[in-house]
Design brief:
Blueprint (H helix, E strand, L loop, with lengths): L1 H13 L5 H14 L13 H15 L10 H20 L13 E3 L5 E3 H4 L10 H29 L4 H4 L10 H10 L6 H8 L3 H22 L5
Antiparallel strand pairs: 1-2
Helix pairs in contact: 1-2, 3-4, 8-10
């Protein structure tokens, strides 16, 4: 396992960021890491949020990882858990839901109103701290996610290829993936599965099973085609 991990880490760090080759190697590495035993668990309801933040951090920082004895695998797990435990600790902090915005109004040294983003040092500047660089990266990634999200929403609404409407339980053509995606994902607040099932005269279990087994994989495939990476 150490040899396989070392090979994938080397492959990720060999390619420029961003590049398609690096992203492919990174996806393989993350899939392998997620199967390793020892990743810290938590019963907190928002644990997956902390875990996702950890994978994003690993994606950015993997080339700074330094293996120590007794094995690369154990060192990697310790390294990942070190960050993950802090993110879980944040979940128990009262202010952990505070959203840090780079567009938040502030004032520069001259007293003029501006945004935090505008007064950040240039990312090419050698004086820029790693924390500020991380903020810059986070902002770019969030903008990319929002852009992809808008395109996926538009795809769901239009379904020009008919992929979503074509996927439905055999005895209920009205319960297709486009309708479910609109009701469960697009509309705000989302509808309850029980209400949709009652409206379509279908059992909760059948509807949920179709959503989980057919609609979600289909939507995941569409999202990946638009550039979304888990």
């Amino acid at each position: 396992m150490d040899e396989q991990l070392q090979k994938l880490i080397g492959e990720v760090c060999r390619y420029p960021d961003p590049s398609l080759e690096r992203q492919k190697a990174l996806n393989k590495l993350l899939m392998l890491i997620q199967q390793l035993p020892g990743i810290y668990k938590s019963s907190h309801p928002d644990y997956l949020e902390a875990l996702n933040l950890t994978w994003e951090w690993v994606s950015r920082k993997i080339c700074t990882f330094e293996a120590r004895s007794p094995s690369l695998q154990q060192s990697l797990i310790i390294w990942i858990n070190g960050f993950l435990k802090w993110r879980i600790k944040d979940l128990y902090t009262p202010d952990s839901n505070y959203t840090f915005s780079l567009d938040r109004p502030t004032r520069n040294e001259e007293g003029d109103e501006t945004t935090l983003l505008n007064i950040l040092p240039d990312p090419q500047s050698p004086t820029m701290t790693l924390d500020l660089l991380d903020l810059k990266i986070a902002q770019i990634q969030e903008a990319q996610r929002q852009s992809i999200g808008k395109r996926i929403k538009q795809y769901i609404e239009q379904d020009k290829e008919g992929k979503l409407t074509a996927s439905h339980p055999r005895k209920n053509s009205e319960c297709h993936c486009q309708l479910l995606a609109m009701r469960l994902l697009v509309q705000n607040p989302p509808h309850k599965i029980a209400d949709i099932a009652r409206e379509l005269n279908i059992s909760n279990q059948t509807l949920y099973s179709h959503w989980k087994s057919h609609c979600l994989p289909l939507l995941r495939e569409i999202a990946i085609n638009y550039g979304y990476e888990k």
